[in-house]
Amino acid sequence: MSKPADLVQGTLDLLLLKIVALEPLHAWAISQRLKQVSGEILQVSDGSLYPALHKLEQDGWIKGEWKVTENGRRAKFYSLTRPGRRALEREAANWERLAGAISQVVRLNEV
Amino acid sequence: MPDSRWFRQIILRFRTLFQRRRVERELEEEFQFHIEQRIELEIARGLSPEEARSVALRAMDGVERRKEECRDTRRVNYVDDLVRDLRYAGRNLRRSPGFAALAVLIMALGIGANTAVFSVVNAVLLKPLSYRNPDRIVTLSDFSKTREAATTLSKQVSIPDFQDWQKQSSAFEAMAYYASRETAVMQGATAEYARVASVSAEFFRVFAIEPAAGRFFTAEERKPGSGGAVMISYAYWQSHFGGNLHALGQTVRVYGSRSIVGVLPPGFGFPDRTDLWIPKISEAKPEPRTGQNYLAIARLKHGVSLEQAQAEMTLIARRLEQQYPESNKGLSVAVMRMRDEMVGDVRVMLYLLLGAVSLVLLIACANTAILLLGRATARIREVAVRAALGASRQRIVRQLVTEGLLLAFIAGALGLLLAYWGSKALVALAPADLPRLAETGIDRWVLAFTFGISMITSLLFGLVPALYASRADLNDALKQGATRLVSGAGMVHMRGVLVVMEIALAMVLVSSAGLLIKSFVALQNVALGFRPENVLVMRATVPAPSAVGIARARQFFKDMLSQIDALPGVVAAGATMAPPGYVDSTGAYLIDQLPAQPDWTHAPNVVLSIVAPGTFAALGIPLKSGRDFSDSDTSDRPFVAVVNESVVRNSFPNQNPLGRTIFCPFDSLKGMTIIGVVGDVRQRGPAREPMPECYMPYEQHAFNGSTLSVVVRTVGDPHALAATVRRLARERSPDVPMKFTTMEALLSENVSAPRFRTLLFAVFAGLAVCLAMAGVYGVMAYAVSQRFNEIGLRIALGATTGSVLRLVLKEGLALACLGLALGLAAAAAGTRLLASMLFRVRPNDPVVYLAVAVLLGIVALVASYVPARRASKIDPLAAIRQE
Lengths: 111, 883
What we know:
- Chain A has four helices and three strands; from the N terminus they run αβααββα.
- With 111 residues, chain A is of the alpha+beta class.
- A three-stranded antiparallel β-sheet of chain A has the order 1-3-2.
- In chain A, helix 1 crosses helix 4 (82-106).
- In chain A, 32% of the residues are buried.
- In chain B, helix 2 (20-44) crosses helix 3 and helix 14 crosses helix 17.
- Classes of the chains: A alpha+beta (111), B alpha+beta (883).
- Chain A binds chain B through residues 26-28, 45-48, 50-51, 54-55, 57-61, 63, 66, 73-76, 81-83, and chain B through 1-2, 4-6, 8-9, 12, 26, 29-31, 33-34, 37-38, 56, 59-62, 65-67, 69-70, 72-75.
């Protein structure tokens, strides 16, 4: 099980942006969704989730709105803002490049 | 869109600041929701509710810590800190009201004085004129390339020149010329003085204004022989017609009977608060090119710069020079922004005043810094405790600076109040001819200025003590806790530096004031060439629309003068076009011969005056030779003139001028026989040298014979005569408006600018001396209290009262001398700026500097004496026991 501390610096933001980009979700659902789509490999601890989300919100990449959940409870739903979408595209492209480069290095044949 | 992101951020910061509770509630709710979800999940996995709750909380890894982390992302902590610091500072100031009141008072004086002076500078120099696109309105003035501008009238232009400019230039949207004077206006049955401007066709287009009611002049109304139209100012409309539209079409008598066709918009009164505007009639006979009697203005076309316009006009002027060498040789045109042209002379004076008053502010800052240093010493323990509890140095400095800031803002608010009254006093004292003075007030620029200087001063006086206090050694402070710790050499040294600076600045201010005062005294004592005391002046205008009128005017003045002569208490009576202090006309003159093609441009210049017999006696101008005019010098007799000694010096060296002929192109070119010589008079006020002058009898000249100032020398108070003279004039001609004043009052108007700046400098210097005195006292009192033990010991060992006194006084004097030396150097450099305002005093006048140095030295001694006295009274037993 990978802990958030093991995530490459900055990747948590990318993951959160991406999850929120799919559909507006509240924080709990975001953590569940992350676990689920990553096949339980990626997880963010309950504790680190909120400061990260609030930072993204304060930076203007995502916005929070209070809505009612399916069970009739009030919860804060996060969704991507327009600048957030561009930031996501940028970060995703960066990630692809970085990941590609790393796997290339890793796959080098040893003599 | 990055701005939308910033916008979102700003909204969030605002919510954090102003909807704190709601933001907190939402944070709480969000966490609560999460924990409940986790509990539900864990229960579903088979844990008991208690276990589920503890797992949920553990997963959060410290709910409060996480919340704090979320709060930190909001990044408005510094505002929180500021609010906390402000509260703390407020409590602190309340705890020592005496200190707070003193510091606030000192700073409020400094800030108030600065704000008041700035409000005048703002109104006169900085505010844009209240016309549309004021930067495009320019003045066009003639100036002589060869002769230095000899007369005040040299900016004026002639109509033929103006018409050529208009034909040949392309830089302007509209161009106009005008002439204005105060003259008689009859509305209904009352005659009064009003300012009337005669304006050319495009005048109102230069300002891009529309009438508030009615219309502008038509082309018909500019033709010779038209019925006559007049436009009135909004203020005149309100005061004379109650703002009623019936005013349109009503008749006003000014240069003939005219009907009102329009009202100008509120606030418009160009030039010089004009009440009525009349169309300049385009004469069939062209005016001479030498008739430079008009002022010209224009509006720059959009996109045309001042420099381009100037280049074009210079070119045109050069062309006219070649075309009309006899009238235009050496003449060029200056294009200036109207505002710059208006404030030309007063700019230097106002900026100097602002500079002087900012020195006062600096001294006030130094004083407050000394006060705060004292406080910082007293509070060293408190600061040390805070530092020990983990406050960073930066945080402590910030807290102390905030305290300074709070002080400065309270002082700023009080200063604004002082400035409100101060600026009223300034407006009342200022010379009446200061342009746009009436616009002085507290506007947003003045507010911004006050706010700005409050900020700056709080840093100036707050930072030094703050840095000192925060640098105190923690351990020492906590261990000993006494006030003596930071006392060390550093603190005394710092105060010494501040007080030396104060004395140096005071030296600069006081010596400037000294120079101005000495120069003002010289101005008062200058030989004017006439005796201004006990002279009543009555300006009167006989409405004279035609040739019939001038005869009536002559008769009026003749009758008035003979009646006044007969009054008891009258020594002599006369009448003149321009009483000394004002020049109405100047012109060239030739002697003996009038050639067929006179070369007026190279002829010498004289002031031209129309006077009645008796004027020289009434004004006390000595007759050097020959005779005064008499009642028999009428228009059917040979033309005569009286010249002053300057004319004789220039044109008749070692010759007898009596009986020679002088030619002046005034209203006729008839030769005038010189019948008398009088002494020189300073025609342009006491500060300027006399000019050559040619006097002509009023009965031989028609020009402007309708407006004269009757001058009456009386035995006693001239005011006492005014009522009688007014009654005589009213009985004779009820339609003649009159204005009474005295020669002394006119003279004082003439020196109102030097008086204004001298008075202000003196006030600022007085403030500076008081503040410096307080500063020296504060520092010396502190030094004595620091050396309490040492002095006690000295007394115990046999030091006499005298020797202790000397010890302390010597120290005070040493500070003063250092300050005076520095100040002397600064003053020697700084007062050079005053040079243009000094009269018969050099900026490096040694007497003034010596007197000021002695004065300040005495002030420092007096301020040190009280602490010295106290030191000499120290009880040696008490001092030693304390140790």
